[in-house]
Design a protein that fits this description.
The complex is a heterodimer of chains A (246) and B (622). Chain A starts with 6 loop residues before the first helix and ends in a 7-residue tail after the last strand. In chain A, strands 1-2 form a two-stranded antiparallel ribbon. Chain A has two domains: 21-124, no CATH class; 133-216, Alpha Horseshoe (Serine Threonine Protein Phosphatase 5, Tetratricopeptide repeat), CATH 1.25.40. Chain A has nine helices and two strands. Chain A has 246 residues and is mostly helical. Chain A is elongated. The relative contact order of chain B is 0.13. Chain B has helices spanning 2-11, 13-29, 32-35, 53-71, 82-105, 112-120, 133-142, 147-167, 175-185, 209-218, 247-259, 280-292, 297-304, 308-311, 327-335, 367-400, 405-411, 433-439, 442-445, 477-509, 514-521, 540-548, 587-616, and strands spanning 44-46, 49-51, 126-127, 130-131, 188-196, 228-237, 266-274, 316-320, 345-347, 350-360, 416-422, 454-457, 460-470, 524-531, 558-563, 569-578, 619-621. Chain B is α+β, with helices and mostly antiparallel strands and 622 residues long. Chain B is 50% helix and 17% strand. Chain B has a four-stranded antiparallel β-sheet with strand order 14-5-16-15. Classes of the chains: A mainly alpha (246), B alpha+beta (622). At the A-B interface, helix 1, helix 3, helix 5, helix 7 and helix 9 of A face helix 1, helix 2, helix 8, helix 9 and helix 20 of B.
Chain lengths: 246, 622
């Protein structure tokens, strides 16, 4: 450590340092402060953007849920969803809004409209994101409903299903069953059920189980009369019904 | 280090970099991240984010409250042990953390205004339809939240709600899927069935001893006795410590009892008040004069009394038992005959004219009437003191002893014995859950220690130890003979029913109808047309089996039989299968189906989403 003999020398040293470096230090501080200010402002703006989108989405949900068939109120919800898509197109809220528009369209039987909403989501969603995977799945289902089973199956087979293996399998089963490809449908449903059962969450899959049951009939007992036995005896043997799971 | 910096500062360029770093880091992250960062003690880490012990404790408390509310008295205290609950609570915290992170990553955020308007809109926090900040703070404090924490978790809740509504909540059912599912869920099957009742086949046939002992040999494991224990125990209750009561105490209690208000005489009183003032005497004289002339007291009071409250009621003040009014008034009241107006009475309020309008004569009870009750009360409260002292001593003694006789001897108590206490005990002293969990605890049952002193409520206490432990054993033949006879009889009846069912099935498959067979053999038969899977008119076994069968080819029947739990056989034929058709369903059914198909996709998507988060996450439980 340098030792200065007198205070004056210390002051002199500092002053000299300041003359050499003062300007650059000030510039450094000014740049740092303005950079951080800009960053905070940007962050605040982004945050406000998100919150505005959130408020709008919440209001949209309220209108859609509260509508209960009231066309005017539902119309408000739809308008807000469109606003989300146009003004906050980059946000997840916009994708959620489009998914809800697709839902409403399907409920009304407007499959082409549903398709275009889902395709919009696919255009916005990152590859492998949850919204993307779900939009893909729903697009396939909508296409199948419009009669284009081949394209629907192609989408289900090619697309990354990600975490949604069981949901994809149910959709595949439905399409195959409609096509009369019952054995493939049965396999798809079984896959869906066993994947769903391996998850810890409890899911009510009543219709899935019923569909599977109807594809897995258990034949009736067949009684074979043993001809040699005298009449009056319980002269029958039986083959037991095969195990359903078998 | 600071010296080094100073050195470097003097030297130049490195310093600028250091200062820059400090400035930028403060600006970007704020000083608190450096001062308050990383405590280090957490119970789990989810993708690098910690779950603190406090969070876990809060979740545990919530879960306990829920359990207590659900189970009430039936709750086994063991269920509230922290170890049991904490892994569940931790898992749900981890699940929530994962969802919160996912919501955050998707850019879901709840604004301050939104959360405020939700909170102020919650009915719990409202008084007369208005948000009340005091009520809000009080309720939060009561359930152990700070406003900041509450707001934060409400924000999370709302964000998670948005997440769910966006992914799972936007599910639908396409027309194609509705048609497909309706085909199956609304499928109808026509079924005819007949009942072969087991009663027809139960008969009291002689069963030989050899048959019985043979059965016993083969099926010994079915005749195990229940595990049981014999216990020594000391039971303490108030009754054990009742002592004769000193007569003097009863007399003292009686004196106290007599003072109680329900035995006092009561007077209903009216008055006219003249407050101090210029015309006080003059108005007093006027009132007395009018009363002397026979004017009703109530009228005069109504006109002249300065006590506005009572004047309207004719001066009525209600009842007093001697302590409601100022001393001077009470003295006058005690001496007044009913209906007679008093001389003027002076109090701080002014001058009163008083009249007693009603008198309820109070009569203190005779000693003999209350003696028993006083005696019992005194005896019980004295006994309780001794009881509690003895319990404290017993806790020490029995904890240190390896038997019960010694503590009993020292405290002059008796050891009782109970035999054959089982895990499923449902009556008597040991049926209480706290007793059973003590009896069958490892410490008492295996280690053979004295139990803790268990409080049963109602001032009863028990300490116990296991005298002998009976493992399940095969009961002797004689004890189970009747069970065996019943079992053999039942088995042969069931076999006979099954044989008969096969005979019926043989005929059905050979072309005999259910109706024909039933009539010929005197059985009941029924027909159910258009039964769906949810049908509840048919026996459930028939329904289930009828829907498992493949559809019969046109014009043919399929037959089979099922056995009920009680042993009857139900023989049925499946006549016809009709596919469901969505467009043919009534509107409410269509609505249900739409909901059901959508909801299945929705809940499947929801669980798969959460499972996906879990699979991709880096979770460490510490």
């Amino acid at each position: 450590m340098d030792q200065y003999r007198t205070e004056e020398e210390q002051v002199e040293a500092l002053r000299r340092w300041w003359d050499e470096n003062g300007r650059s230090t000030i510039v450094a501080i000014v740049i740092a402060v303005s950079l951080s200010f800009a960053y905070q402002t940007w962050k605040g703006n982004a945050e406000r953007q998100r919150e505005n989108a959130s408020d709008l989405y919440q209001a949209m949900l309220q209108s859609m849920v509260g509508a209960q068939g009231d066309a005017a109120m539902e119309g408000q919800g739809v308008a807000m969803a469109e606003q989300l898509k146009s003004e906050y197109g980059g946000s997840t809220y916009a994708q959620f809004a489009a998914l809800h528009l697709a839902r409403l369209a399907v409920d009304k039987g407007e499959l082409a409209e549903a398709e275009s909403q889902l395709r919009w989501v696919l255009g916005k969603a990152d590859k492998g994101s949850d919204t993307g995977q779900l939009a893909q799945l729903r697009l396939a289902r909508v296409l199948a409903a419009s009669g284009d089973s081949d394209q629907a199956l192609a989408i289900l087979d090619s697309a990354g299903q990600g975490s949604y293996q069981a949901s994809y399998a149910v959709a595949r089963g439905d399409i195959l069953l409609g096509e009369g490809r019952t054995e493939e449908a049965r396999l798809a449903y079984s896959e869906a059920l066993s994947v769903a059962a391996s998850n810890p969450g409890q899911v009510n899959l009543q219709t899935l189980q019923q569909k599977l049951q109807s594809l897995n009939p258990v034949p009736a007992r067949e009684l074979v009369p043993a001809a040699a036995e005298p009449a009056g005896d319980p002269a029958v043997s039986e083959t037991t019904p095969q195990d359903q799971e078998g | 280090m600071l010296q080094d910096i100073r050195q470097n500062v003097v030297k130049g360029p490195v310093a600028r970099v250091v200062i820059w770093l400090i400035v930028i880091s403060f600006a970007a992250f704020g000083i608190e991240s450096i001062l308050l960062g990383g405590g280090g003690s957490s119970v789990a880490e989810v993708n690098g984010e910690e779950i603190s012990p406090q969070e876990l404790q809060q979740a545990l408390n919530t879960q306990k409250r829920r359990l207590i509310a659900m189970m009430g008295d039936q709750l086994d205290p063991a269920m509230l042990e922290d170890q049991r609950l904490s892994s569940q609570a931790l898992q749900s915290l981890i699940g929530r953390k994962l969802l919160t992170q996912a919501a955050d990553e998707m850019g879901l955020a709840i604004s301050e205004q939104q959360i405020s308007s939700v909170i102020t809109g919650m009915e719990d926090f409202q008084q007369d339809g208005q948000f009340s900040p005091e009520l809000y703070k009080a309720l939060l404090a009561e359930s152990g939240y700070t406003p900041g924490y509450f707001k934060q978790s409400m924000k999370e809740d709302m964000a998670l709600n948005q997440l769910r509504s966006g992914l799972a909540g936007s599910e639908f059912a396409t027309p194609y899927e509705l048609e497909l599912n309706a085909r199956i869920t609304a499928e109808q099957r026509d079924v005819r069935y007949l009942t072969i009742p087991i009663e027809n086949f139960r008969q009291d046939s002689e069963i030989s001893d050899a048959e019985i002992s043979g059965y016993y040999e083969e099926n010994g494991a079915r005749f195990l006795s229940e595990e049981s224990v014999d216990l020594d125990y000391i039971e303490l209750s108030v009754d054990h410590f009742r002592q004769p009561v000193d007569e003097q105490l009863i007399l003292e209690a009686y004196e106290l009892e007599k003072q109680e208000y329900q035995y006092q005489s009561e007077y209903r009183v009216s008055h006219i008040l003249f407050e101090a003032g210029e015309e006080q005497q003059q108005r007093l004289q006027e009132a007395r004069a009018r009363l002397a002339e026979g004017a009703p007291f109530a009228d005069v009071a109504g006109e002249l009394s300065d006590d506005v409250g009572s004047a309207a009621a004719g001066g009525d003040l209600g009842y007093t038992s001697g302590d409601a009014f100022p001393e001077a008034m009470e003295q006058a009241i005690a001496q007044l005959e009913p209906g007679v107006v008093s001389e003027p009475v002076e109090t701080d309020a002014g001058i009163h004219l008083i009249v007693v309008t009603d008198r309820r004569e109070g009569k203190p009870p005779e000693l003999e009437d209350v003696r028993q009750r006083l005696h019992d009360d005194i005896q019980a409260s004295e006994a309780r003191v001794v009881l509690l002292r003895t319990v404290e001593e017993l806790k020490d003694l029995s904890f240190n002893a390896d038997n019960l006789d010694q503590p009993a001897g020292e405290l002059d108590l008796t050891v009782a014995r109970a035999e054959g206490v089982t895990r499923s005990q449902n009556e008597g002293l040991f049926a209480a859950p706290s007793m059973l969990s003590a009896v069958f605890s490892e410490d008492v049952l295996q280690a053979g220690h004295n139990s803790e002193v268990i409080e049963l409520g109602d001032n009863r206490f028990v300490v116990l130890r296991v005298r002998s432990h009976h493992e399940p054993q095969v009961r002797p033949l004689e004890a189970v003979r009747e069970e065996i006879v019943a079992s053999i009889t039942e088995t042969s009846a069931r076999t006979a029913v099954a044989e008969e069912a096969k005979r019926a099935l043989g005929q059905l498959q050979a072309g005999t109808g259910v109706e024909q067979f039933a009539v010929e053999n005197d059985y009941q038969w029924q027909v159910e047309l258009g039964a769906e899977r949810g049908n509840n008119a048919m026996p459930p076994q028939v329904l289930q089996r009828a829907f498992e069968l493949p559809a019969p080819t046109e014009g043919e029947n399929l037959s089979d039989f099922v056995m009920t739990a009680t042993g009857d056989a139900l023989v049925f034929e499946l006549v016809r299968v009709t596919r469901g058709e969505y467009s043919a369903l009534p509107e409410p059914r269509r609505q249900t189906l739409r909901g059901q198909v959508g909801a299945e996709y929705s809940s499947l998507v929801d669980t798969e989403f959460q499972q996906g988060l879990r699979d991709a996450a880096d979770i460490t439980v510490l």
